[in-house]
Design brief:
Blueprint: H1 24-32, E1 41-44, H2 51-55, E2 66-69, H3 78-82, H4 92-95
C-alpha cells in the first residue's frame, strides 16, 4: 500500500480537497501516495484569484513545478483538437510544451 519512499502514506488529510480550495495539494498527494510524481503541474482557474491566497496552500516543495493561469480554458470540439487544430490563446493545448 502506497509508496515506501513517501513515508507515512496516511499523513495527508484528503478531506481538505472538498472543493473549498485549490485541488493541487489533494491530487498531488493522491498520486504521490501511489509513487507517481509529476515534473510539471498546470492549473487553470477562470474565477479571478488573489495570487497570494491561491499560492498559500501549495507546498513550497512543489511550487517550482506549478504553472498557474488565472484565465478560463477555451477549447475547440474534440474532433478538431484531435485533427491538430488549437483554439485561442486560452487553450490549454496551445500552452503545453509538446
Amino acid at each position: 500500500l502506497g509508496c515506501t519512499s513517501n513515508g507515512n502514506v496516511w499523513a495527508y488529510d484528503y478531506s481538505a480537497g472538498s472543493g473549498s480550495g485549490p485541488s493541487i495539494p489533494l491530487f498531488y498527494n493522491m498520486y504521490k501516495d501511489r509513487c507517481i510524481e509529476f515534473d510539471d503541474i498546470y492549473a487553470w482557474e477562470g474565477k479571478p484569484q488573489n495570487p497570494a491566497s491561491w499560492w498559500r496552500p501549495i507546498p513550497a516543495s512543489i511550487r517550482h513545478k506549478v504553472r498557474f493561469y488565472n484565465i478560463f480554458v477555451e477549447e475547440l470540439p474534440v474532433e478538431q483538437s484531435i485533427a491538430g487544430l488549437t483554439g485561442s490563446d486560452s487553450s490549454f493545448l496551445s500552452m503545453l510544451p509538446l
